[in-house]
């Protein structure tokens, strides 16, 4: 049990008392999860936890059982006497779990009842992250459990100030942001996902590029692999970092724009590229970069499910046509160059 110190006695039975200090193993585990290593099994058991020496008057903070979320919450609450109610979200963070329904009304009520929380605290207030609002119906929680679901702050780091201010938000605590640092921290997992496609997409395209009437051109194969990797980097790294400066509202358009820009720069340094080389480079880089940029919409706070569906309906056919024409250009290069 992560951070376990001892058992804390309550009227509903013993509850795990956990430390608010993260260990080296916690830090390494969080880093690995950022890079997609064991991320789907990075979980803690759901249930009620204690930090400090909470009593019947101590606040109850609700979070997901994704261990990174749990770790950030207990770290933010250092030096306080607080209850943490962890919901079963199957290792998914609060925001995504709210969209999937696992950080939801039913699970919150079940966890309140199974933990015997009504015996542990005298108040009837649950502090939830605002990012979980999409999955929780506060009225139903109140009717079925007797507890008020209060949405506290957007960022975990604002929780201490929220508690110190009599659980009243101050300007900024509920304001949405997506700063450079907030975008950059999401890049590793997106990059890893993109790099996995090299084996079944990048290499086959590179083999097509290496075909030559005079024999297989390994130099072209290596160059084409590098180009594909560059397209993945455009969509998973450059788009998040340069997001406010790229044209268009749709992420797929932003990705296509930076993919085209990168292709133009590459063709400028190539020695006498054929028209087929130019076309393939432009079309494939635009399609790949656009695809992975659109995939990034799932990591942002600016999109809605309906908006994502609309963007996919408009953009995926365009990407498919661009990729298909790029492949045709590579094949035509073999026969006509």
Descriptive notes:
With 337 residues, this protein is mostly helical. The chain has two domains: 4-164, Rossmann fold (3-Layer(aba) Sandwich); 180-336, no CATH class. It has 14 helices and seven strands. It has a three-stranded mixed beta sheet with strand order 3-5-4, with helices on both faces. It has a two-stranded antiparallel sheet with strand order 1-2. A two-stranded parallel ribbon has the order 6-7. α9 (187-195) packs antiparallel against α11 (218-242) and α11 packs across α12 (251-269).
Summarize the structure.
The chain is mainly alpha-helical. Helices cover 52% and strands 10% of the residues. The protein has 14 helices and seven strands.
Task: List its traits.
337 residues; mainly alpha; Rossmann fold; 2 domains; three-stranded mixed β-sheet; two-stranded antiparallel ribbon; 52% helix
Secondary structure elements and their pairing?
Layout: E1 4-8, E2 15-18, H1 24-34, E3 47-51, E4 60-64, H2 67-76, E5 82-87, H3 94-100, H4 105-114, H5 117-120, E6 125-128, H6 138-145, E7 148-151, H7 159-164, H8 180-184, H9 187-195, H10 202-210, H11 218-242, H12 251-269, H13 275-295, H14 305-336
Parallel strand pairs: 4-5, 6-7
Antiparallel strand pairs: 1-2, 3-5
Helix pairs in contact: 4-6, 9-11, 10-11, 11-12, 11-13, 12-13, 13-14
